[in-house]
Design a protein that fits this description.
The protein is of the alpha+beta class. It contains 45 helices and eleven strands. Among the domains are: 79 residues, Phosphorylase Kinase, domain 1 (2-Layer Sandwich), CATH 3.30.200; 178 residues, Transferase(Phosphotransferase), domain 1; 64 residues, Serine Threonine Protein Phosphatase 5, Tetratricopeptide repeat (Alpha Horseshoe), CATH 1.25.40.10; 72 residues, Alpha Horseshoe (Serine Threonine Protein Phosphatase 5, Tetratricopeptide repeat); 83 residues, Tetratricopeptide repeat domain (Serine Threonine Protein Phosphatase 5, Tetratricopeptide repeat).
Length: 925
């Protein structure tokens, strides 16, 4: 059974090295069956991708497009649960990379590339598709420098000549956007794509991949750039640009979309040959070509080189690498170093000959020995990597040095790095700086960046933030994203420049828009912390999402937390969990911990203590204190693991040793109670002190208790009050309640009913049942507050409903006596019963009395006897006396003087006067 075009089996897929990453996925060099392909693996899962209209739209568009200038789509598959698109491999990198590396040295090459981009645009426009994000970064090149348009994630199918987005939010990248796209309701058309083509042509003309850098230099925001474009402002076309090339840019940049040419017009002009000559093309007619060929055949080296170059570039002749290789060989035989170098390049890339690192190295060596700087640099790289030759770092350094001395900027940069870090050469900051300066003079942005770093860190020069800023600015103007990010840091911190968060934002944004993850994170943090005026959580979420989708674990975690809080995005525990899982996969400990929390509480997933324990353990084993603490709690209560105080103590101790105050308090409790560890009140007090010193209210409360009782510390009510007060000041209800008790008893403080009521009330408002009960008692008695039975009833009812037996008992008495509520023996009996069921002796006695008298319940001596016995066995003297009466009178039980006397004596021993009289009477009767 064959695979469908859209769904391919993962069985034949071999994922190779990462070759790029962007906002939505990672691209890998791979093979599918026998074909070399590019695999774009999305960050999101396959199921989630089905619900993403942008991804489904990109797939649908790619499946439609079949043209040599469009990256070809072979199908989709699944890789490790994520959606993966299998596409044509463009092994020449991006056009932006080619511009930065100056791989388009001639106007002929630049014109050809522009024409091929126009061909691709004309094709997709003919298919009814608008790209919406054309820029050099989204133009790929083959090893033969053929154009392939890519990244159709923002593309749309046009329905009218000018398509409005449904949500009025523009798509694309600011500097490449046409004026009409910057409007409140952007209108997309084929003409917005051709405007962007003009911007790409400017990139090639200026050898710069960052338009409007002059505005950036003066700290203008993207919004200012938009206003500049809307007002008719454009980039300056460099002097020396050929007139035909300039005219195309100017026409594509027309303010009025209707006046801009379609891409197809440029294609037709190219096909008809109606082009103004560019300044550096050969433009040979047939006679001139024949003359050149005859000279080449006569061993004229210059002619051989010219012919080889023509075939290599397809300039005036059909592009033919085999012919180019043949002519370079003939020139190389005459020891032409450039020909030898070109042969090395062709052997290395497999152009016109079988790919061979050994042959490439051989030709590089021949050219290098003739002092060809580029060949020396490439030869150094071959020795560095062990390609075509045994790896030899010393030889590599030697050839780098020769190339650097001959002015090769890349070699100078490499030597700077080697001397800075010390691998394979002596570490020497001054030499590193010297080489960086040489490379910087040639415009090498990496060297310029590193000089800034040397000044920032005082390496090889006196530390100077001002100098660092100056060099970073130069590198940033060359389009270096790291430098742009570093400038953002300097403005944010006020290092070398006056602090300005708005300018920090500007530089971070430039780097972020170029895909620099750290800058995306910093932008997210600026907006999240509300450090930048008039910014929103939505903007913070946007930038963190970019970093997250690029695979950054911190970004993934923050996006998860923003989904969890509903900050900048609609609250969703489900989506939060997805992003936490992505971060956890990269060993982000807080993400692993949070997954445990979600499983523990059933958030975004079905509650599962076993899974929660598993995730807590992952993070705990890597010393994450929060997870160690939670895992300890799981062992303490037997959640998701077998209950074990020893394990609980072990994990709490690990977290406590990392100064986690909650864990310090818990290990103190375990030492105090001898659970999982040998009982040790002194050790308990020590841990309580450590936790309390960090301000943990529960530990402060526990210290109050042990000072009050003298466990592990010298007994001191003064100390107890002090610690209760600290906990109470933090709003800890138990601390407030116990401080009230100390005022009630006059222990460690002067007795004060007013203070008692005040502290009981604070705790009662927080729902502490004991405080509510005692506050009710104070209202009932009129102590520290004006007597108010209704308020007493209200507080006792709140407490009783939480379950404390004493509150239920007191509430029953209020129903019995009709205080603060209508008298009701039925309700009194109901509340006595609740307390009695908790084995509260006074309630058992009172309920027994109601059964004797038949008040609120049906009269029942047997039930009364049972309740009296339960209370009597707990030492309740009234119950013991009444039990004696029932045995003496034979009520609910057989009459027996012996049993009567037994219970009377128990009550009498507790001082019950009625029982003492009965004992005297029965003893003499």
């Amino acid at each position: 059974m064959t695979e469908s075009k859209s769904n391919l089996s993962e069985e034949y897929l071999a994922i190779g090295k990462e070759i790029g990453r962007g906002g939505f996925g990672i691209v890998h060099l791979s093979t599918h069956k026998t074909r070399t392909v590019a695999i774009k693996v999305f960050y999101i899962g396959e199921e989630e991708a089905k619900n993403r209209p942008d991804i489904q739209r990109e797939i649908a568009i790619l499946m439609r497009l079949k043209d040599r200038h469009i990256i070809q789509f072979y199908g989709k598959t699944s890789h490790e649960g994520s959606l993966a698109l299998i596409m044509e491999m463009a092994d020449g990198g991006s056009l932006s990379g080619a511009i930065k590396k100056k791989r388009l040295p001639t106007w002929t090459e630049k014109t050809r590339v522009a024409q091929e981009i126009a061909c691709g645009l004309a094709y997709i426009h003919g298919e009814g598709i608008i790209h919406r994000d054309l820029k050099s970064a989204n133009v790929l090149l083959t090893k033969d420098m053929e154009v392939k348009l890519c990244d159709f994630g923002l593309a749309i199918v046009k329905t009218t000549s000018a398509t409005k987005t449904a949500d009025t939010v523009f798509a694309g990248t600011v500097a490449w956007m046409a004026p009409e796209i910057h409007a409140f309701r952007p209108k997309y058309s084929t003409k917005s794509d051709t405007y962007a083509l003009g911007m790409v042509m400017w990139e090639m003309a200026a050898d710069c991949t960052q338009p409007f850098m002059s505005m950036v230099k003066y700290n203008e925001s993207p919004q200012k750039i938009a206003h500049h474009v809307i007002a008719g402002g454009r980039e300056e076309i460099p002097a020396g640009t050929p007139s035909d090339y300039r005219q195309w840019i100017e026409r594509f940049w027309d303010q009025e979309p209707s006046k801009r040419p379609e891409a197809s017009e440029m294609v037709k002009t190219s096909d008809s040959g109606d082009q103004h000559p560019t300044d550096d093309s050969l433009h040979l007619d047939n006679a001139e070509l024949q003359l050149l060929l005859s000279k080449a055949k006569a061993d004229d080296v210059e002619a051989q080189m010219a012919v080889a170059t023509m075939y290599m570039k397809g300039d005036g002749v059909r592009k033919d690498y085999s012919e180019a290789f043949s002519w370079y060989q003939q020139a190389a035989m005459q020891r032409n170093p450039e020909a030898q170098f070109q042969l090395g390049e062709m052997c290395f890339n497999g152009h016109g000959t079988t790919k061979s690192d050994i042959e490439a190295t051989s030709w590089y060596l021949k050219a290098a020995e003739q002092n060809h700087a580029e060949a020396q640099y490439e030869l150094a790289r071959m020795y560095d990597a062990g390609h075509g030759v045994d790896q030899d770092r010393s030889q590599a350094v030697s050839w780098y040095r020769m190339a650097a001395n001959n002015g090769n900027a890349e070699a100078q940069f490499v030597l700077g790095n080697r001397h800075k870090d010390g691998p394979y050469v002596d570490q020497d900051d001054e030499k590193a700086l010297a080489w960086y300066l040489k490379a910087a003079e040639q415009g090498h942005s990496g060297a310029v960046l590193n000089i800034g770093w040397m000044y920032a860190n005082g390496r090889g020069v006196e530390k100077s933030d001002v100098e660092a800023y100056s060099w970073y600015l130069k590198a940033a103007e060359l389009g270096n994203s790291t430098a742009q990010h570093n400038l953002g840091i300097m403005y944010e911190n006020g290092s070398g420049v006056k602090q300005s968060l708005s300018e920090a934002e500007l530089w971070y944004r430039l780097a972020a828009e170029n895909g620099y993850t750290d800058a995306q994170l910093r932008l997210g943090a600026l907006f999240l912390d509300d450090q930048v005026d008039k910014r929103t959580d939505e903007e913070s979420f946007f930038w963190y999402s970019y970093a997250a989708k690029a695979g950054d674990a911190v970004g993934q975690f923050v996006v998860g937390s923003m989904y969890e809080r509903g900050q900048g995005v609609e609250k969703s525990d489900y989506n939060a969990l997805i992003w936490y899982h992505k971060a956890a996969k990269q060993n982000h400990l807080k993400a692993q911990h949070n997954i445990g929390v979600f499983y523990e509480h059933g958030r975004g997933v079905e509650q599962n203590y076993t899974q929660a324990a598993k995730w807590y353990r992952k993070a705990a084993q890597q010393a994450y204190p929060g997870s160690q603490y939670n895992l300890g709690g799981f062992y303490e209560h037997g959640r998701g693991v077998e209950q074990s105080y020893a394990e609980a103590a072990s994990w709490h101790l690990k977290a406590a040793e990392q100064d986690m105050m909650e864990a310090q308090c818990n290990i103190g409790v375990l030492y105090l109670n001898g659970q999982g560890v040998q009982q040790n009140s002194v050790e308990a007090a020590s841990w309580f002190h450590k936790s309390a010193a960090q301000g943990f209210a529960e530990a402060q409360f526990n210290l109050g208790l042990i000072y009050h009782t003298g466990q592990g510390v010298h007994q001191s009510d003064d100390e107890a009050v002090s610690w209760f007060r600290k906990a109470a000041a933090q709003g800890y209800a138990k601390g407030q309640y116990h401080l009230g008790l100390m005022y009630y008893a006059g222990q460690g403080v002067q007795q004060s009913d007013d203070e008692v009521v005040s502290w009981f009330r604070k705790a009662a408002v927080q729902g502490l049942a004991d405080a509510q009960c005692n506050l009710g008692v104070m209202y009932n008695a009129g102590r520290g507050v004006e007597q108010n039975h209704a308020m007493a009833y209200s507080w006792l009812r709140k407490a009783a409903e939480q379950g404390p037996a004493i509150a239920q008992y007191n509430l029953a008495m209020m129903y019995r006596d009709g205080q603060g509520v209508d008298q009701s023996y039925v309700d009194a009996a109901a509340w006595y019963r609740k307390a009695a069921e908790q084995n509260f002796a006074a309630a058992q006695f009172s309920l027994g009395y109601l059964y004797i008298t038949g008040q609120g319940v049906e009269q029942n001596d047997t039930e009364a006897l049972l309740l009296y016995r339960k209370a009597a066995e707990q030492g309740h003297d009234g119950a013991q006396f009444n039990l004696g009466l029932m045995y003496e009178d034979g009520r609910g039980v057989e009459r027996t003087k012996i049993d009567a006397l037994l219970w009377y004596r128990k009550a009498a021993d507790q001082g019950h006067t009625g029982a003492q009289v009965k004992v005297e009477q029965l003893s003499h009767s």
